[in-house]
Amino acid sequence: MFITMNRFQIKLLMLILMLLDHIASFIPNTPIWFNHVGRVVAPVFFYLLINGYFYTKNKSNYAKRLFVASGFMATGNMLVSTFFSLDIYNNKLKLYSIGILFTIILSFITYIIYKTPIESLKKLNFYGFLLALLPIVFSSLFLDMTILKNNIFLSMAFSIMFLNSLNHNKSDYTHIIPAILSLITEASILGLLMTIIFYKFRKNKPSLISYYSILSLSFLIGEGFTYESLFITNIQWMMIFSIPFFLLYNDKKGSDIKYLFYVFYPLHVWILFAIGSLLKR
């Protein structure tokens, strides 16, 4: 009998692999294979995101919920980066003052997004752009510091906005705006290309697998095939191992813990960043 997995089972497994990946990212002297297994996580979450898009009645609210989550994440990232870098950075007053200011601004933007009507696509795109831009500006002010930028929520929000705009009116090219804005988020061009592949070939698994494989293996181009290149410095090609999960997914929802991902993702990132910062002192 062929084994399948529902949405909840796959999400739960991906959260475990995500935890391992982020342990390796933030905690010193962690086995490299923690990062290896983590390469499958983002593609699987994007696959489930696009699949869920077709089952969501209110697609605009879907995007807005992700924008609110990304605002919450960006605000927390700024706060954690500020307080857990105070002992590392020499000019503590400057860091503290600017960090708190940016945190307040991000909090305000998040509140505005929450209050913005879901029909106001241009406003949501603009506020999302600010959420992506402010951490970049903050990083430019403190180049010698590690600033927490993890925010896959924002990449996902722009992906849904891209699809909403594409389906609303293909002739006015408004879908180009969220597509471009997604490039300055964590998932960048990879998130956009995965969105297009998973959306266009949702009902054609062979084509989906083929194009996704090409995308995955494209990371090997020009990098060489040495052990160091394949397994240490250039491991993004390992996202190809997400394919079994695409095939195992049975289109069933399974158990419903609606906000598990929304809570677990930022919380574990902040905790691990804090632990990693303390260990480096």
Automatic annotation (TrEMBL):
<feature type="transmembrane region" description="Helical">
    <location>
        <begin position="176"/>
        <end position="199"/>
    </location>
</feature>
<dbReference type="Pfam" id="PF05857">
    <property type="entry name" value="TraX"/>
</dbReference>
<protein>
    <submittedName>
        <fullName>Conserved membrane protein</fullName>
    </submittedName>
</protein>
<keyword id="KW-1133">Transmembrane helix</keyword>
<keyword id="KW-0472">Membrane</keyword>
<feature type="transmembrane region" description="Helical">
    <location>
        <begin position="261"/>
        <end position="279"/>
    </location>
</feature>
<dbReference type="InterPro" id="IPR008875">
    <property type="entry name" value="TraX"/>
</dbReference>
<feature type="transmembrane region" description="Helical">
    <location>
        <begin position="126"/>
        <end position="148"/>
    </location>
</feature>
<keyword id="KW-0812">Transmembrane</keyword>
<feature type="transmembrane region" description="Helical">
    <location>
        <begin position="95"/>
        <end position="114"/>
    </location>
</feature>
<feature type="transmembrane region" description="Helical">
    <location>
        <begin position="36"/>
        <end position="54"/>
    </location>
</feature>
<feature type="transmembrane region" description="Helical">
    <location>
        <begin position="66"/>
        <end position="89"/>
    </location>
</feature>
<feature type="transmembrane region" description="Helical">
    <location>
        <begin position="208"/>
        <end position="225"/>
    </location>
</feature>
<feature type="transmembrane region" description="Helical">
    <location>
        <begin position="231"/>
        <end position="249"/>
    </location>
</feature>
